[in-house]
Amino acid sequence: MVETRKVQVTGGSTFTVSIPKEWATANDVSAGSTVEFYPEGDSLFMAPANGEERTEGTLDITDLEGEELTRAVMTMYVSGFDIISLESARITTSQRRTIREATQSLVGLEVLEETRDEVVIRDLLDSAELSIHTAVRRMRLISLSMLEDAVDALAELDDDMARDVIQRDDDVDRLWMVVSRIFRSTLRTPKAAEELGLPREECFDYQSAARQLERVADHATKIAHLILEFEKPVPEEVVDALSQLHEDAHAIIDQGMDALLTDDTEEATRLANDTRESVQAIDERARRIDELLRDLDPARAHLLGLIVDSVSRSADYGGNIAETALQKTAPTP
């Protein structure tokens, strides 16, 4: 429900406005309370001043095991809780092991305290020091190197390189969780956006790009798993065609990210439009590779077809990043 108030002048120069009583009561604001103001464009956000900067959350894990428990810990982390208390009448050894593994897979989390019926996890990083910009740049480097190494591993049928690609997916996932956590914190409170020094819309752009990069890493991992199923070398002409497809996909993702990260609006628009046009040529190149696969035995042709699809989809994700860059350059309503 929208409420309106008239701005008044007191003391000849001070502007004042009353706040709704229901809101004040719900947020423990009364006479003498301190509130904080956060300007954002033509808007002014107000929030109660909170001396306690750490947010705490409690979760009953009695019926949670394995992957379900891991996802629960990750969800609490991404939601922005700084202190997470996991409780049960008796926490099993298996649950403790899962909690430790989940904690190690997330940036900044450590087990602070353990008892028979509770495990307390705390985020030891200062959220003000986390950089969504740096996290996305790291995701770009890792995901692109994973895709490149996956294609190279196919050419040599290098199982060790393929397994290394699979392991690096954990690094991208950790960064993706960090980006999601930071982004959700900016939605929850304008103070988080102010500490980051970025408008919330720009945080959304970074989060959108990070999601695409996380998918690129997933497809690189998928390719690496497929490589482990090959027993015979891939024909050279197919390898060459796939390498060229990868080069085009790599360039599209790189150019899309350049468009997103540049502060030059005209340059961003040019790069983003060029990137989107390049994506259209990917489908034709992929079809030509599919024609080469017709002469292979069905099993190998199927595996290679999946790899072609993953590289093509990675290029599409680069196009999505370019689309986000175009939205970022659009005039603000």
Automatic annotation (TrEMBL):
Name of this chain's protein: Phosphate uptake regulator PhoU
UniProt cross-references to PANTHER family, sorted A to Z: PHOSPHATE REGULATORY PROTEIN-LIKE PROTEIN, PHOSPHATE-SPECIFIC TRANSPORT SYSTEM ACCESSORY PROTEIN PHOU
GO molecular-function terms, A-Z: DNA binding
Source species of the chain: Halobellus ruber
Gene3D superfamilies on file: Phosphate transport system protein phou homolog 2, domain 2 (1.20.58.220)
InterPro entries in UniProt: PhoU (IPR028366), PhoU-like_sf (IPR038078), PhoU_dom (IPR026022), SpoVT-AbrB_dom (IPR007159)
Every SpoVT-AbrB domain range: 9-54
One Pfam family of this chain: MazE_antitoxin
SUPFAM superfamilies given in the database record: PhoU-like
GO biological process, one term: negative regulation of phosphate metabolic process
